[in-house]
Design a protein that fits this description.
Largest sheet: 3 strands, antiparallel
Radius of gyration: 18 Å
Number of strands: 7
Shape: globular
Helix content: 25-40%
Strand order of the largest sheet: 3-5-6
Strand content: 5-15%
Structural class: alpha+beta
Number of helices: 6
Order of helices and strands: HEEEHHEEEEHHH
Distance between the termini: 37 Å
Length: 203
């Protein structure tokens, strides 16, 4: 929570990043007060088919929020529909889009290794999936591209192996990696940690 509060404090005036109203501690818990947003992009998926104009506006606002983060050295390492909050005037569908959930947000420093496990599995970039510890802002664009595809096709681009699997299981991670390899081929050798292919080469 402290990381999230620090990020939110850094962007008090950005229209595309959820703003912090207040933050305080109570006994054994921390309380963050945030503005009310009606929906997440994920919840809107279930009941509304986006028009091309909707997609253009929402994706543009997501990119503007990410650009603000990137200009200040941050990378949002968990971009997914659940972490994109949306509000709209129902009659005219004037979308207001804000990024939220900055628990995995990183302050990128040159020549320092990044955490190996970031991003939700279904939106995890190949650089992270294959063990590159020097990834940068480009991992976010993979997630945004998947959100764009899902808005256009009205469905998940990548799926879990079965309804019984969770995104956190090794079975799901292996299955997801196979899907990425089938679509895009084996990663280049430099993508592995320290320039060496890792265990995923066996796929």
């Amino acid at each position: 929570l402290i990381r999230e509060v620090n990020v939110l404090k850094s962007f008090p005036d950005c229209d595309y990043i959820l703003q912090l109203v207040d933050f305080f501690e109570m006994e054994r818990c921390c309380v963050i007060i945030l503005p009310l947003m009606r929906d997440s992009l994920y919840s809107v998926f279930t009941r509304y088919r986006f028009k091309l104009d909707d997609i253009r506006v929402i994706i543009t606002q997501i990119l503007l929020g990410l650009q603000k983060l990137h200009d200040n050295g941050y990378v949002h390492a968990d971009v997914k529909p659940e972490n994109v909050l949306v509000d709209s005037e129902q009659k005219e569908k004037k979308w207001s889009t804000k990024l939220c959930d900055f628990n995995w947000t990183l302050k990128l420093e040159p020549n320092f290794k990044r955490p190996p496990k970031v991003q939700s599995l279904m939106y995890r970039a190949p650089e992270v999936l294959f063990g590159d510890r020097y990834y940068g802002y480009q991992i976010v664009m993979w997630s945004v591209a998947l959100i764009f595809l899902e808005m256009v096709t009205w469905g998940h681009f990548f799926m879990l192996p079965s309804n019984n699997c969770t995104p956190h299981s090794i079975e799901s991670e292996v299955y997801h990696t196979i899907q990425v390899c089938r679509l895009f081929g084996q990663p280049p050798i430099e993508m592995g940690e320290d320039g060496k292919r890792n265990k995923w080469t066996l796929l």
